[in-house]
Specification:
This protein is α/β, with parallel strands linked by helices and 228 residues long. It contains 9 helices and 6 strands, in the order βαβαβαβααββαααα.
Length: 228
């Protein structure tokens, strides 16, 4: 399966491991985000931070390049943070990008979302992530209380967090920023980091637990299980 995803370091480090835990019957090849390479000779390829239309353009470019070189896959898997956008509109955007690539129509595809961000999966399985981590376990209860009362994070339905902001063209408040702020406010031993902690926790959380609280994640899990 070819994996195209938005985001940054956390997606680079943690997404493939959680996909392998969701369904270990498949092999996954990450096509994006493209890891930035240091030095003046680094190829000028799209890097981190792509989402929405920008990610759609990247998918079209990288998919076309891979197919033109003779590579083939069984499924094109796209995963992006929804950032409070309409999932149907975003799904049409990505499917349109695939449709522009010659020969891509012959390959099955699935567009999945982390709503509003991939950190919702970590919120959903708090007990196997933040609650047990050495940097947070001494004050994880305070963090959870702060997130619930100050940011209205719905732990039972984390995918529903956030309100769309017309000016930002994304969520008014970012879930990842709220988690970072909670770690600072509660005096945790570590300041929450997307690159370090999100990537680590994606390797620890239970797909079964997350599925029970995140319907969009459940859709992804079911789709991967159905793929031969």
């Amino acid at each position: 399966m070819w994996v195209f995803a938005g985001g940054g370091e956390s997606e680079v480090k943690g997404l493939i491991p959680i996909l392998e835990r969701i369904c270990s019957d498949h092999s996954y090849e990450r096509k994006s985000p493209v890891r930035r390479k240091p030095g003046p000779q680094a190829p000028q390829v799209p890097g981190y931070g792509r989402t929405g239309k920008s990610l759609g353009q990247q998918i079209e470019e990288l998919l076309s390049k891979s197919l033109d070189s003779g590579e083939r896959c069984d499924l094109i898997l796209i995963i992006d943070d929804l950032d409070c956008h309409d999932p149907n509109v975003r799904r049409e955007l990505f499917e349109s990008s695939i449709g522009k690539v010659e020969n891509a129509a012959e390959i099955e595809n699935f567009v999945g979302f982390a709503s509003p961000e991939i950190e919702s999966w970590i919120i959903a399985d708090w007990d196997h992530s933040i609650a047990t981590d050495p940097g947070f376990r001494s004050c994880h209860g305070q963090m959870r209380h702060w997130l619930s009362t100050q940011k209205a994070v719905p732990f039972a339905q984390p995918e529903t967090f956030g309100i769309f902001d017309e000016e930002k063209v994304s969520c008014r408040d970012k879930l990842s920023d709220a988690i970072i702020e909670s770690s600072v406010h509660c005096g945790a031993r570590a300041r929450y980091s997307k690159g370090i902690h999100t990537a680590r926790f994606l390797r620890q959380i239970s797909p079964e637990v997350v599925s029970g609280k995140c319907p969009l994640f459940q859709e992804l899990r079911i789709r991967l299980a159905q793929t031969d």
